[in-house]
Amino acid sequence: MKLAVCLVFAVSSLVSQSMQAQTKVAVTLEGLLSLKRASDLSLSPDGHFLSFVEGGEVYVCSTEVTCHPNQIAKGNVPQWSPNGDLLAFFQNTDARSTILIWDPKTATLTHVGALDTGATPKTPLWWNPEDNSIEVVSEKSDTADQIIKNVPAPAVLVFPNGSGESALSGLTADSPRGSTLGRPRKDLYLFSSKTGKSTVLLKSSPDVTSLNWSPDGKKLVGAIRDSRPAGAYVEPSSTIFVLDANGGGLHRLRSVATSPWGAVNPRWSPDGKNIAYIASATPYGEDTLFVQAGLDGHPSRAHIKQTGSVMSFVWGGDSKSIVMQVANGVTRPVVRLSIPSGDSEQLNDTEVLTSQFSVSKHGDIAWIESTGSTFEVIRFLPFKGSTSVVLDNLNPQISGWKLGEQDVVRWKNKGGDLLEGILVKPAGYQAGHRYPLIVDPYGNRVNDFKGIPMLANQMLAGKGYALFFPNHRGPQTFAAQNLGNAYSKSSWTSDTGILEVEDILSGVDALIRQGVVDPDRLYLYGVSNGASAVNLLLSRTSIFKAAVSFGGVSDWFNYYMYRPADDWTIPDFLIGKTPQKDLSLYVGISPLYHLDSISTPLLLVTGDKDTRALQAVLFYDGLRRLGKPVTLIRYSAEGHGLSDTNLHDYWARIEKFFSEH
Description:
Layout: H1 2-23, E1 25-26, H2 29-33, E2 38-43, E3 49-54, E4 57-62, E5 70-74, E6 76-80, E7 87-93, E8 96-103, E9 108-114, E10 120-121, E11 126-127, E12 134-140, E13 156-159, E14 186-192, E15 197-205, E16 208-213, E17 219-225, E18 238-244, E19 250-252, E20 264-268, E21 274-280, E22 287-293, E23 300-301, E24 310-315, E25 321-326, E26 334-338, E27 344-346, E28 353-359, E29 365-370, E30 377-381, E31 389-393, E32 401-402, E33 406-412, E34 418-424, E35 435-439, H3 458-461, E36 466-470, H4 479-483, H5 485-488, H6 497-513, E37 517-527, H7 529-538, E38 546-550, H8 556-561, H9 569-573, H10 583-588, E39 602-607, H11 613-625, E40 630-635, H12 644-659
């Protein structure tokens, strides 16, 4: 009898699991576009409440019970008062940022003022603990940015394989630029809710990248991106400064006058005794945390166990710890660092993405987390707690989708370097069966939910493809920020493409050896940096059946020459090398000069308003004249991405293109 009961239970369990599997639905573009995203997390000082923004609306929920978010009003950047009894936030209406205060006890909203028309907030809202008045610094330019506008054109232009027409047809001289002419200097204003007015704080300010209040509200600490000449290459630099809130002018911190490159986001500790900021020793290199005592102390580097960059940080309420998000390969963990001992502990699970977080005065922490099967889950860890809890899952519908299983994969290249990336298996994967593989070589990818509509995503896994996201060391992906300087510097060679290609292809070989991938059905798909990697790969290998490239670079020399005069991004990631210093490097990594090596069928896509539109056109025309299999699609009203409407057309063309090859 017991055996019969067990058998019945086992059978019913299997039937239940089968029914659950059958009720799951395929991932669609509409589903991906409907995913919700949270931002602007803010814990109340006592940690009892959490505010956040989703869909342009401010929400508040309790951290002590199951979160049922209370929708407050349209707004952004909510900030709790010192005792946590009021919540202030911005609301943007008619080109003005209005400041509202919400009272949880009465559920009422109060208008306390507005910034000048055209002014944008430069600091968070600062609450005066003495009278609950509010101050904020804003930025405004008297000269509107001049944007080059495109002439009207058909929505989609297709230049098919074998076309005799140049893709330059209908592309105006201004179309590929689409850039801002110059960077006008701006004025800083101080708004006070006491007067309801804004007063000039600093006229014609330099390029201020970040600005934060001192605890007493008397000073502001910020970072200035130092200007760079338009002529010969000069390494970038930045300066940490202090600004008196009463208009006393800028004061450079003496100890960081020669600070490492890229010093950003300086913040005072809650007790006002220390200042911490993020900086890098090399352009687009590993970002590290520095802490210095007051305005005259010597900055010291905060040493932590994780490799990679410190992405963001917040001081703990006791001023004895710093909570930070760290780039550690495929993960973005939350780490708490003790000051000054340097002891650190990871607060959440490994191999997840933490997108942002907030810390209460008492040390409670809330963060947003995504995994391979969840997206935008808000978690809460009480002070001295050992386990975090889920406050809210913004996208519970994902549990009903047919997802491909997602894993972190690691392999070694020919040089013995250990590499890692993400593998998404096809939905319904069966061991022992080989599947077609789409490689998305964007780089610097993490183990989060693959649901970005423009990149390779779970929609493709639902159509039977395996997806591979290799974290290679191509310099255009700024790999050092994710993997650390020591590991990435081997790619800073005379031909930066050699290691990039080897890193990617060795990962593909590893998946083939594991029996997951069909070696005769390999495809490439890339957008932006990923498209640049696709273009390079096509000039150095012919193992792929077909490739899609959206918004990539095919001629780094041309791209350098047509960049805005003050844009030094390319020589920055090439460690200061300009075409004048190393022309062979630019030619070597530019597929446009190696068209004879390309034989893979290619679908090129661009938006006419993209600054890289000319790159796609030149690449297409060069391949077309050599009789290579290439098709170009131009979306006239789009830039470096696509609107929801054109995404449907785009993905229909992509799926058809891959299926035909």
